[in-house]
Records
---
Amino acid sequence: MKTILIFVSTLDGKVTKWGASNVKLWSSHQDQDYYKKILNESQLIVMGSNTFNADTFKPSADHQFIIMTVHPDKYKSLEITGQIEFTNESPVELIARFISKGHKHILVVGGPHIATSFLKEQLIDEVWLTIEPKIFGTGGNFATEINLDINLHLIHCEKVNEQGTLITKYAVLKK
Ligand SMILES: NC(=O)c1ccc[n+]([C@@H]2O[C@H](COP(=O)([O-])OP(=O)(O)OC[C@H]3O[C@@H](n4cnc5c(N)ncnc54)[C@H](OP(=O)(O)O)[C@@H]3O)[C@@H](O)[C@H]2O)c1
């Protein structure tokens, strides 16, 4: 099974502008269209509770949204069987569950805490990163403050607008 981590970032590695949660206020239209397309094509979409609360995810029979939280009971009323699920499983347990069900792909859409917990356990196979030609100085990075040592290999790079937004894909080199 392939686990893909997707983010949009600035040149200085920020995935939030000065810490504010609305990414669509600064990401390019090209990235927003691309992200929408990737979400539409993905069956299994994993995120943390903060990312779920910061955006709007439309439930659909075509996707299963899995929201990671220590308090799944808090979200009981939002659950839709087969479409929106809240879980306190660890990243390792989640991946094992979906491997055993025969899934081929999982898309991890963030945020930084969830991304880091998957990266730490070496569960990410590819990083799909849109790089916006912007510098914010402050804001969150997609990997939070722990020591990681992950090497990747560029497998795709496309300039998608005049300003130079780059859509990139990297494969994680497994040790
Ligand atoms: N630029 C981008 O591409 C992009 C993408 C996604 C998100 N974002 C931004 O990132 C921000 C949210 O990121 P975030 O890092 O604060 O939150 P997050 O990763 O979305 O969610 C973290 C929360 O998930 C829960 N959780 C459950 N299991 C966990 C585990 N194993 N490890 C860590 N957390 C776990 C915890 O909340 P409970 O109290 O519920 O347990 C934790 O506070 C938002 O501002 C969003 O807009 C940007």
---
Amino acid sequence: MNASGAPTTIGPKAYEAWRAQSLGALTEAIELRAVLDLAGDVSGVRLLDAGCGDGALVATMAAKGAEVTGVDPDPAMLLAAQKRVADAGVKATFTEGRLEGLPFPDASFDVVASITVLCFLPDATGAFREMARVLRPGGRLVLGELGRWSLWAAQRRVRGWLGSRTWKAARFRTPGELRALAEQAGLRVTALRGAVYYPRIGWLARVMAPFDRWFGRLGTFGAAFLALRAEKP
Ligand SMILES: C[S@@+](CC[C@H](N)C(=O)[O-])C[C@H]1O[C@@H](n2cnc3c(N)ncnc32)[C@H](O)[C@@H]1O
């Protein structure tokens, strides 16, 4: 999620620092598991990571055999992503661009993934429309977002009230709102799950993390990470 609290303008160093903490590494691993569960087999598929950041998911998906394109408006993120992919010994393509106007023709991808990007965008409807446009019929969208009814989101709202411009502008959605956005874009939601049910406290995270899947069976309330899969008819 890069739930480090790092504003998107800070750049790749903050994200690296987040992953270097045990809470960050644990949380990233749980979120990645949720994303991979919903993405299914990606071997040989054309996959777009929209808002790819420093390329963690790009490198993972490329290692799994996907033909991956990463798009992000931040050149520093793209540089970090290129380095990560090169270090991992895999191949991927990167393009500067925004979700609201993806620089690809219609039906270019089998899978579109977008992880913790939507909450920063003023036009979520337009972003969903774009993701649906670049998906081929039968293709799937995998979206990850910070869940509105979670302690993590509450903490960020407080940071917004205290003056953080990033978190003041961010909009955290409910599962119902994410579902509605996907459906408005003509997609059929096939899964909506929660993950990361612990608060942003290291020792508690370590105690609760082994039960995360179990919490997920109870519902999405309290989940810091919401993962949605939707298909284009
Ligand atoms: C919280 S980071 C998530 C990065 C990556 N998806 C991950 O999970 O590690 C948000 C990313 O969204 C990117 N971003 C911000 N505005 C965007 C936009 N309009 N379109 C696409 N990406 C955007 C930022 O540059 C940043 O890399």
